User: Which sequence fits this backbone?
């Protein structure tokens, strides 16, 4: 029976190496020249807004950009008009800090690919009243780096003509990488200040991000990305009794990312990041400054994958064939899942803070810290902390000095709560690897009393379980000529071999268990690298079954 085999071409992410590093960095932020001095810091927020990386020989060079926002109570400033200070006790400024780092991956080479994930584990600040224009911000970062090499690999998936018990196979679950791309777009929307809110004098900050209804649909030749953004503005109002207000709204995003090779039914991984906010304040039909044109510079990363389960031949115990082998190092995809969770936590106003005025919550914020995942049998346990913050208007409090209340109607407090959630992935087993992507979709706060707030945070949790596989696979099979099994005296004096498509002198030599040099010498070949289909080669009896080369 003739020996035949089935081969397939797959493009896989070949794992070169990975590492996780942690580092703490402290940077000094200075109040911009046009801003008043700081009396007291209300809030410091940090967010990773950009991660640039380059794979180099021996590792990955990473530059992490972190946006830092500082909200503070202004101190009386001699150069500032007292009326302006009284009207606006709360100020805000922001800046970006860049943190470079090199992560050692010994086998990494230039032009390879990488997956880099940077998380802020914890952020803190310190403020010295004697240095009332300086805030020291400390961030603790966790950086996970994996270096990959996209490789087109030939896999032998089946062999016939050899007894089954002589062919070793293993099931391999891989993601065939079809295409990927990063696409930037400007998303625009209109935010109307509610009728019960005053006009805008000046915007302090714009916040927001993708909220819900995010979908990515693979079509022939591309991916359609849809979602809904929520934008919030904190602004200084044109009135005396409450200078700071907050308003929010939503607008849609719908973009098509072209990815040749994508087909309906394939899977996709999509990541949407807001790189920068911009805005323009204009008047409504009544002539009031209550309309904000919001623009978000958005970066969309899309990767299209084809999950496959392939039986791969890992060995053949037969002298009828010669095999080519290669070491395969890939992450076998066990499964993935995305779940939504709503976390509700009660926040209590600290004893040194005044009561919250009814309807006085200006802004609710939330940050994720120390998010981690661990694979257990049947799924992934995701844990972390939510740092919730409340900016509010203070209610008159009998125990509070009226002058202090008058000078500072806006207050801020925060608290931290842990969360955990189990994401079901049936075939997961303890000891496997996991990837997680936890996103805050929505933050809401409800005043339940003058001293308590229910903070409601909607989370989206993506978990993926992989299993690192390193195995030797068969990538090519050369059928040994029957003449090799004949006694030397029974063999023909020479064999005429006709070159077939895909042949090389090396393959032909293995077919007859001889050497390339012997065939070159017997046929007076000037260039061993050039063969023509249909070319006839002489294989003399004396070189058959000779030393291998």
Assistant:
């Amino acid at each position: 029976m003739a020996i035949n085999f089935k081969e397939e071409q797959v493009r896989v992410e070949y794992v070169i190496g990975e590492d996780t590093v942690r580092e703490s960095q402290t940077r000094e932020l200075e109040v911009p020249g046009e801003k008043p001095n700081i009396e007291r810091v209300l809030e410091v927020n940090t967010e990773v807004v950009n991660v640039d990386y380059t794979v180099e020989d021996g590792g990955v060079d990473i530059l992490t950009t972190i946006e830092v926002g500082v909200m503070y109570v202004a101190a009386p400033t001699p150069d500032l008009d007292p009326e302006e200070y009284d009207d606006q006790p709360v100020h805000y400024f922001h800046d970006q800090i860049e943190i470079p780092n090199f992560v050692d991956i010994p086998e990494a080479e230039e032009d390879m690919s990488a997956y880099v994930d940077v998380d802020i584990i914890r952020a803190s600040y310190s403020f010295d009243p004697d240095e009332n224009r300086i805030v020291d911000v400390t961030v603790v970062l966790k950086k996970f780096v994996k270096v990959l090499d996209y490789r087109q690999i030939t896999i032998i998936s089946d062999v016939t003509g050899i007894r089954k018990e002589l062919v070793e196979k293993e099931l391999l679950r891989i993601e065939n990488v079809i295409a990927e791309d990063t696409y930037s777009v400007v998303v625009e929307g209109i935010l109307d200040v509610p009728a019960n809110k005053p006009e805008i004098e000046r915007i302090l900050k714009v916040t927001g991000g993708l909220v819900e209804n995010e979908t990515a649909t693979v079509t022939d030749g591309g991916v359609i990305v849809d979602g809904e953004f929520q934008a919030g503005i904190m602004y200084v109002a044109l009135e005396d009794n409450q200078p700071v207000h907050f308003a929010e709204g939503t607008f849609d995003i719908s973009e098509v990312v072209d990815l040749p090779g994508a087909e309906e039914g394939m899977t996709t991984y999509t990541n949407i990041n807001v790189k920068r906010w911009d805005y323009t304040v204009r008047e409504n039909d009544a002539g009031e400054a209550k309309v904000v044109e919001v623009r978000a510079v958005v970066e969309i990363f899309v990767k299209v994958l084809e999950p496959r389960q392939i039986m791969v031949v890992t060995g053949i115990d037969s002298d009828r064939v010669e095999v080519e082998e290669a070491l395969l190092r890939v992450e076998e995809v066990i499964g993935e899942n995305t779940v939504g969770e709503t976390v509700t936590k009660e926040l209590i106003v600290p004893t040194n803070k005044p009561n919250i005025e009814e309807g006085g919550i200006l802004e609710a914020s939330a940050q994720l810290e120390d998010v981690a995942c661990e694979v257990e049998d049947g799924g992934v346990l995701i844990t972390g902390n939510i740092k919730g913050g409340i900016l509010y208007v203070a209610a008159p409090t009998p125990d509070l000095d009226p002058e202090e209340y008058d000078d500072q109607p806006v207050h801020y407090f925060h608290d931290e709560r842990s969360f955990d959630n189990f994401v079901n992935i049936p075939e997961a087993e303890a000891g496997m690897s996991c990837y997680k992507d936890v996103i805050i979709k929505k933050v809401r706060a409800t005043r339940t009393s003058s001293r308590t707030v229910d903070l409601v945070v909607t989370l989206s949790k993506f978990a993926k379980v992989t299993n690192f596989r390193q195995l030797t696979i068969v990538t090519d099979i050369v059928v040994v000529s029957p003449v090799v099994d004949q006694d030397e005296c029974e063999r023909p004096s020479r064999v005429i071999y006709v070159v077939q498509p895909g042949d090389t002198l090396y393959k032909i030599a293995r077919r007859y268990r001889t050497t390339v040099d012997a065939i070159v010498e017997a046929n007076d070949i000037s260039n061993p690298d050039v063969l023509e289909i249909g070319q006839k080669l002489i294989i003399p009896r004396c070189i058959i079954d000779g030393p291998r080369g």
User: Anything to note?
Assistant: The helical segments are 82-87, 402-407, 505-511, 516-523. The chain has four helices and 20 strands. The chain has a mean pLDDT of 86. The two ends are 28 Å apart (CA to CA).
